Amino acid sequence: MKLLVTGGAGFIGSNFIRYWLEKYPKDKITNLDKLTYAGRLETTEDFSKNKNYTFIKGDIGDLKTTLKATEGIEVVVNFAAESHNDRAIQDPGIFVRTNVLGTQILLEAAKRQNVKRFHHISTCEVFGELELNEKRAFKEEDPFRPRTPYNASKAAADHVVMAYYHTFGSPVTISHCSNNYGPYQFPEKIIPRFITNLIDNQKIPLYKSSQNRREWIYVDDHNEAVDIVIRKGKVGEMYSIGTGVEKSVEDIADSLLKIFGKPKSYKKYVPDRAGHDKRYLLSTKKIRSELGWKAKYEFDAYLEKTVEWYKENEWWWRPLKKEAEALYAKTGQK
Ligand SMILES: NC(=O)c1ccc[n+]([C@@H]2O[C@H](COP(=O)([O-])OP(=O)(O)OC[C@H]3O[C@@H](n4cnc5c(N)ncnc54)[C@H](O)[C@@H]3O)[C@@H](O)[C@H]2O)c1
């Protein structure tokens, strides 16, 4: 199979390529990535010399580039995005340009090149927020109620993907995933930020609404689910990918302090970001019953494994830490 992965120099996309090349060593993967602050060649170093791997530096929002990149491609997996809510508050425009317009250009290229499957990576955050005590989980057919510029751009992109399906018959699938953690995640996101602070013996900054919670998934679980959706998923359908494992900001902090053997005095509280959603939770009934997927990586064990990875790979995150902290210095969340 010949795949085009976009955003493959970022966190989840690079782990997807690593996963795929190992599982399907005969397949060929092209990675199209603009190399924004979040995309780094260092992240792809371990597979960059694989003979079945090709890298193209380019923007999904450029038709000439995407037409070339989709030539002879059977499956497109679109991870490329501006992905950080905190950054979307400072510059919403780039989120709309990359996530919405970029996705449309990529869909257009895939249509013209007769790509057999366009799989779009989306997020649970398109469904809006749940109350902390609400007894329901988001289902695939729920309406989109995004509340932040990032979430709105992802929801808009999903609508464009479905419009290509209904209008042009493009062979699309979409997956909505919960919060990921694992190796190679940029140190401005909560888990790597806390881990790298603790490695440096610094306090960890919790948002004041520290009871707000997320559903956490190890990145390989996400990528295995995407693999199954590509292989077995029905064109025109959306699938939710989650674990049911909910952790508050406070829980994450406490688990990490336990792993590092540090006291609770390492926690400090900073202002919330604007529009901080309280909670998301996905029902995974559809992907479990129709495609036979379920998450297998247990949270505590894989959080510990992630800590080990950051301890062993300072070469990767240390050059990025300064930029990550500069972002929070600007917003007073340091
Ligand atoms: N991180 C999560 O917890 C999570 C959860 C659910 C869904 N998602 C979605 O998964 C995808 C990947 O997320 P991530 O956390 O790996 O993000 P990331 O920010 O680590 O990586 C994004 C990658 O996209 C590239 N990129 C950005 N703009 C581009 C453009 N115009 N053209 C080509 N490449 C471009 C960047 O250079 C980077 O390599 C995103 O679509 C995101 O919305 C993420």
Summarize the helices and strands and which ones pair or pack:
Blueprint: E1 2-6, H1 11-23, E2 28-33, E3 53-57, H2 63-69, E4 75-78, H3 85-90, H4 92-112, E5 117-123, H5 149-168, E6 172-177, E7 179-181, H6 190-199, E8 204-207, E9 213-218, H7 219-232, E10 238-241, E11 246-248, H8 249-260, E12 267-270, H9 285-291, H10 299-312, H11 314-331
Parallel strand pairs: 1-2, 1-4, 2-3, 4-5, 5-6, 6-10, 7-9, 8-12
Antiparallel strand pairs: 9-11
Nicotinamide-adenine-dinucleotide (NAD) binds at residues 6-7, 9-13, 32-36, 38-39, 59-61, 79-83, 98, 102, 121, 123, 154, 177, 179-180, 186.
Folded structure, characterized:
The chain has 334 residues and is an alpha/beta fold. It has two domains: 2-180 and 216-241, NAD(P)-binding Rossmann-like Domain (Rossmann fold); 186-214 and 246-272 and 298-331, Alpha-Beta Complex (UDP-galactose 4-epimerase, domain 1), CATH 3.90.25.10. The protein contains eleven helices and twelve strands. α1 packs across α7 (219-232) and α6 (190-199) runs parallel beside α8 (249-260). The chain is globular and about 55 Å long. The model has no long low-confidence stretch (mean pLDDT 96). It binds nicotinamide-adenine-dinucleotide. Nicotinamide-adenine-dinucleotide is lined by residues 6-7, 9-13, 32-36, 38-39, 59-61, 79-83, 98, 102, 121, 123, 154, 177, 179-180, 186.
